[in-house]
Design goal:
71 residues; four-stranded antiparallel β-sheet; 1 helix; 23% helix
Length: 71
């Protein structure tokens, strides 16, 4: 039986925008994005201590990268 330390998601959007999130059990995430050719990099992903906190943060990241709130 496996006990993973992390889980990752890759979200793609309009105009080939991408958001990559790897959530670690230690309470942080590695967050990288490509909004457009002039706007790419990493976003802060510290202090994620619950599923609710992760939900709030991923909504913020989606708005930052894609400009819209997740449904």
């Amino acid at each position: 039986m496996s006990d993973p330390d992390s889980v990752g998601v890759l979200i793609s959007g309009p105009a080939e925008a991408l958001l990559s999130v790897v959530l670690f059990r230690g309470g942080w995430a590695d967050v990288d994005y490509l909004a457009n050719v002039d706007d790419a990099g990493a976003l802060p992903g510290a202090e994620i201590d619950s599923a609710a906190a992760f939900g709030i943060r991923i909504d913020e990241w989606v708005v930052r990268v894609f400009g819209v709130r997740a449904a």
